[in-house]
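Hi there,

I know you've been waiting on this one. I reran it after we fixed the sequence typo, so this is the corrected version. Both the input and the resulting structure follow.
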Amino acid sequence: MRDTQIPILSKRLDFAHACRTQKTLLRVLDHAGYNVAMNQRRTVSQLALSILVGLTTGLLILTLGCTRKTPADSGVWAEVDGKPILREQVERYYRSRMAAGADAGSPEQVLSFKLNILNELINNQILMAHAAHAGITVSEAEVDTKVAELQSPYSKEEFQKRLKDQGLEPGDLRQEVRQSLVINKLINREITSRIAVTEAEIAEYFQRNKATFNVPEAQYHLAQIEVTPAAGPQVRNMKNDDAKTPAAAERKIQALHARVRSGEEFATVAQEYSEDPRTAAGGGDMGFIPASALDSNPQLKQAIASLRVGQMTGILRTAAGYHIIKLLGREEAGQRELADPQVQGAIRRTLMNEKEQLLKAAYIEDLRNRAKVVNYLAGRIVEAGANTAALR
């Protein structure tokens, strides 16, 4: 089941995987009317009367304009079928997506970002209403499991700090998680389950993109368990386990090596005990590493070259600490052909994703056409014109 996340903690975390894995390896080894008012011809008396009425009406509008606030002024930035979306909701998501210390940009950029967030919240509210109509629900156990998954890379204290930084209480997080799970179920039922990719589509995609399946050099798909000889403030394993001295690190890596050699799942041990904050949560997965990236560490290159897929090295010691490396896969240099199951799988996933994104966009737009949506923030921005500073 593909995870279709609403803007919660998931959109808030990390560098691109390729950069992350390469850096990991090197360290391992070291986004009014125009009121043409038609000025109908009037008699002098009619014109005088219209002027009198116009002046009276203008004074009334001016008086009301000075005393009454619009919904956007009062903190309601949109309504969906009469249900409000508040400014504070948009502001909270905005703060959570802005990296600490990041330049917010110009007032126009900030407002554009907030307008996009508001649009997401409008769509989510529409989807939630449709899911309720369709009888889609999630259990407390499902929410518990997802919350635990979000918390797993962090210590309890770190996780609480992240929630606080984003203005979230635990109850708010559970509500966001529940909404995310409900929307995922709705999308899977209404969209993903209806998507099919044919063999002809796969073959056509391969012919159009054949050059992208030409691998310039051998690549190794690696995973690691890392233990460092000093306390690390960024430890991200599920057990919150950190060796703080060289002696403790040596004892720990020996124990972990014994566990994986005895048959324990490598990924599970990495999730629970590895001290590399960038790979522990993913079971130690470092992604595909080009063979040339290993040239700077002959010891590692030789150790990996001697492995068969599924095998792992012994304990490797580097300046960064201790490592156990597992070879998850290998790709040799050269042109990949359509008959390769990995090529077909990669193309199928790509086409499935493209179709899902198109269908989801159309599905949400169709639901939105049937809902009564009022975007007060958008109205105020249009009214303000170039004077966006007045909207902050």
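Quick highlight: The longest helix spans residues 341-370.

Best,
R. S.
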